[in-house]
Structure prediction request, 146 residues.
Amino acid sequence: MITLLILNVGITMAQKRDSVRSFSHRHEMGSIYGIPNLTDDQKKKINDLRTPLHKEILPLRNQLAEKSAHLKTLQTAEKADLKSINTTIDEMAQLQSQITKRHAAHTQAVRALLTDEQRIAFDMRASSGRKFYQHRRMSGDHGRRG
Prediction:
């Protein structure tokens, strides 16, 4: 009985994983950022906007990760220095703010390329709280962030 239960759970988990991969693959093939009916020109322009964004954000994310590791070190020290902890937190907030501002600029640049119908779909997806890269993260094909 236990063996059947374990086997059933394993099969269910494998089916769910395959379903997520299938959805992710269809989603990636169908559109960029979930935007319907993109022309080839729009796809090219959106992809051309992504590369500079990623080049700008990667060093900021790396710095943020370094600050996060440093913060852990400061917080777990024998005698924690609250002033240094707060300074590091402020530096991390500044880096996160820069990343968020670059994402906002990118979003507006993409929106400028879209028709009204496409913009509504794009905005609806963004307002649902889902990140544009989330479908890729589910598939396990990419790193921490998109």
In short: The CA atoms of residues 60 and 95 lie 6 Å apart.
